[in-house]
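Notes from hallway chat w/ T.B., transcribed later so I don't forget. T.B. wanted the structure written out for a chain they're using in a teaching module, and asked if we could keep both sequence and structure tokens in one place. Agreed to drop them here.
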Amino acid sequence: MGEMTKRHWALTDVSLVVKGSDLRPEEVTPFLDVQPTGVREPGPSQWDHPDDVDGQWRMSCDERTSGDFHEQLDTVLSVAERKRIELRQLADRGYEVTITLFGFSGNDATLCLEPGEIKRISLLGFPLRVAASMNER
């Protein structure tokens, strides 16, 4: 019997996310000196869960930037590593700083992190959030 081909997550998106109930994205951008790919003022949002009312600053890398998940992750981790001190200062002020991985994982698809990637994430000291959609793509 032939070897089965591994299926990987589709439409992956890797993000550096800063959230907080009083977070003002227009203050985070100059503080980090990084342009976000998305922001949200505090309050209800038509796109997010009704309980999620935190302000949000996000720098994402998705299939429009690179179709390769590992390149997306490297791009986001490189920014986070360069801005580690500033991100730690935001976390010390009470903001939630995370590295977020998203993708479609239906049909038994997998998402594998390499040991070096896990080490880089660990050294940053911020939580890793993995959000998978089970819709089949």
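Follow-up for T.B.: The beta strands are 10-20, 38-40, 55-62, 96-104, 128-133. Might be a good example for the class.
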